[in-house]
Amino acid sequence: MKGEYIVDLHIHSPWARACSPQLTLENIYRWCKIKGITVIGVGDFTHPQRFQEIKKKLVPAEEGLFCLHPRWAKENDKLIPQSVRHNEVRFLLSTEISTIYSKYGRLRKLHQLILLPDLSTVAEFNRQLQKIGKLASDGRPILGLESKELLKMTLQLHPQALFIPAHIWTPHFSLFGSNSGFDSLEEAFEELSGEIKAVETGLSSDPFMNWRLSQLDGLTLVSGSDAHSLPKMAREAIILRAPLNYSAIRQAIVSGNDDFIGTIEFFPEEGKYHYDGHRRCGVVLNPRQTKKYQGLCPKCGRPLTRGVLHRVEELADREPDYRPLQHKKVEYIIPLVEILAELIGVKGSNSRRVEKIYQQLYQKLGDEFRILRQVDVEEIKEAGFPQLAQAIQRLREKKVAVQPGYDGVYGIIRLFADSTSLPPHSEQLNFSI
Ligand SMILES: [Zn+2]
Ligand SMILES: [Zn+2]
To answer: Buried (b) or exposed (e) across 346-385, using 16+ Cβ within 10 A?
Structure first.
């Protein structure tokens, strides 16, 4: 744990579609301290207003990294308790671009994450993209440009630029997406596919699922939150031990060297499209069962909505239990507010009671990642939270019950299976990693 820190490369700004107006840089700064995130992507640097905000509120820190300007830092430090105030926060220049184009006779829609080392390169990147599409209309701009061309442009722009295909399994907007993606990196990037060094696995898949594709061997599997609001930041993230500067962080991601410790993962079953099924028919199937029914709903006879697990099965050339000889650490978490919601017995994590206890917790025990990953359970108990101590013990032992999501229905993850009545397709999972 020594020297390790948490990085979230993928978040958004108030100017991206369906994103919270609260995602200002100073709010992000405060939430990073509460959560225990050391390096955060600014998100949406292609948007003119976000770019203005970056230039106004951030100041250069270590090479390629930025701090919040002392003026805003001072004000915001006053709003959070001593227990988290001294956590360090650095910003890194990041954005997500959506490309839409036709290739091999089909419509393709892909999202990609781009990291750049300095403001003048961002300005030049934005200048070039302005010729292709309207950057002001969305924080995650939609460009009529081939992903391969965007990759070429990024590589030519700066040797330290980094291009990462985002949430590669999402059905609608990704590299391997069942609706508008490709079957291989080569199809999408042709002779430039070797330039792809890392892919983002997304919320609905984890490294275990991705190891099943030999075409991903040698690529670093990264995770990011794709947060549309502050509390969702770092629900997935990277754990690094690299020196705190852009080049070292980039190098760790590109090479997957010893500075890259691993990823923090959402349980993939929680995703809305993990299993196959029909929402209206109440039919939930795993890919094997779907095959048995020839892809048709046993209730209504219409084609089933295929989930991410099914798409992985389609492209995988290895069995589900395949493990590489050596691999990076995979650490599952359940966001603290979700654990509290389960303990209190409220639906959703937005309740006032949950919020209040969450505040008490970080005030007493430090940031969220410290509570989830490091604080001794005895200490949590002694601080007055015996039930939570038990829950966190179970999380660390990976004793959870899952009810996989399907056809747009979110999955449910429970630490105490008896705390709620889970439907019959739930199963008890004991992960052994
Ligand atoms: Zn995206
Ligand atoms: Zn049906």
So the answer is: eeebeeeebeebbeebbebbbbbbbbbbebebeebbebeb
Q: How many whole angstroms from 110 Cα to the centroid of ligand 1?
A: 8
Distance 266 CA to ligand 2 centre (A): 28
Q: Print the SS3 string covering 106-151.
A: EEEEEEEEEEECCHHHHHHHHHHHHCCCCCCCCCCCEECCCHHHHH
Residues with Cβ within 8 Å of 128's Cβ and at least 6 positions away in sequence, in order, are: 153, 157
Q: What is the pLDDT of residues 324-357, one digit of tens each?
A: 999 999 999 999 999 999 998 887 667 889 999 9
Give the residue from 60, 291, 315, 380 showing the smallest Cα distance to 169: 315
pTM of the model: 0.92
How many A from CA of 115 to the centre of ligand 2?
43
Question: Which 8-state DSSP code applies to residue 384?
Answer: T
Q: Where is average pLDDT lowest: 77-81, 184-188, 397-401?
A: 397-401
Spacing, Cα 393 to ligand 1 middle (Å): 33
Which residue ranges make up each domain of the chain?
Answer: 5-269, 335-430
Class in CATH terms, 5-269: alpha beta
State in Å: Cα 217 to ligand 1 middle: 23
Distance between CA atoms of 213 and 215, rounded to whole angstroms? 5
